[in-house]
Amino acid sequence: MIPYLPIENTIPRLFSPREKKLDLIKREEKWRDDKLESWTIFDTVSSFSEDFTLRIFHNHREKKSKETIFGLEVPNELSSLISLVERSKYILDLKDDWDENGSKPYFYDTWEKSARFVTSFMIDFWRKSFVKPVEPNIYHAPESSIDIFWKTENFTLLINIPRDITKKATFSGKNNLSGDEIKGSLDTSKSADWLISWME
Amino acid sequence: MPIDKEEVPNTDFLYMRIHKNDFQNGEIIPGAFRNLPKDIPDSGMSTDWDKFTDWLGTRSRGRQSPENYGIVSLQVGNVREIPEQTVEHTPKEDNPSHTDVFGIKETETRRKFIEICNILAKPSD
Q1: What is the reported pTM?
Q2: Which of A98, A141, A183 lies nearest to residue B21, judging by beta carbons?
């Protein structure tokens, strides 16, 4: 096991394209980690190339999260997620006939499914793109369902979580730049990488 | 005396009352666009036709005091471009401007209503 060497202490070396990409990621992480209180080295991989140039790459660091929601660790950069989820609890306070038109109250399970999806999606987005995602809002919706709504200059996206949590969510979105629209159903328990790509 | 129904032109506007619960942080929420009352099948989304009223009149016809409601306007032609939405003048004796927007308000529908609505007044304005 070769010990971790800080970037500035590594000796000059030749990089393959993959190594260059890893190096870029590493430098970006280092820049971000400057503000971190602590970090962990997950693994250090080393090998010697044919010309005996030392190659040391892939230092993956992950800061220790301070908060968790639904058991999911929330990176410091996404700390506003916590207040977003807290704000959305107003939905649980809406009593029977809250709109004076016979609307029913909301189930905790529906709210939890919605808030859990938003939390995992935002964390997933951050880890995969290194970009802080635009936060949605979580609103009450018809038939005791819950809406997750993004509205930005570039796109609008509405995801509806039905009252019956065994049913799939439905979504509808529009890219305001291209005019392209999307709609369909979504299993919120699975990773939505395609949605991350669409929003980027 | 019954009030005759009229065809609503695409160029005209509808005013819709939005309760303060359907505003969050000053923004109207997609769930505001729903059919009421819930216990009547095939009910529509209540609006007022601007041929017979102004938005202040629409605001004053709510069950609660006017400051509890915001008002949005919707151009009829834009409403009819949303899938499965129809606009029908449904006058009442005490409100000749009453107009229903019929059609299921699914996720896509509500997103599109948000895009075409224009907020004229917010609650407590």
Answers
A1: 0.78
A2: A98
- Determine, for residues B105 and A142 on separate chains, whether the beta-carbon distance falls below 8 Å: yes
**What is the distance between the alpha carbons of residues A34 and A45, in angstroms, rounded to a whole number?**
23
CA torsion sign, A186 to A178 to A199 to B18?
negative
DSSP assignment, residue B92? Answer: B
**Whole-number Å distance between alpha carbons of A75 and B100:** 47
pLDDT tens, residue by residue, B41-100:
789 999 999 999 999 999 999 989 999 999 999 999 999 999 999 999 999 999 999 999
Other beta carbons within 10 Å of A117: 22
> A103–B38: do the CB atoms touch at under 8 Å?
yes
Q: What ipTM goes with this model? A: 0.91
CA distance B58 to chain A (A): 17
**How far is the C-alpha of B101 from the C-alpha of B103, rounded, in Å?**
7
Sorted by sequence, the CB contacts under 8 Å of residue A54 that are 6+ apart come out as: A10, A11, A13, A46, A48
Nearest to B29 by CA among B59, B72, B81, B84: B72
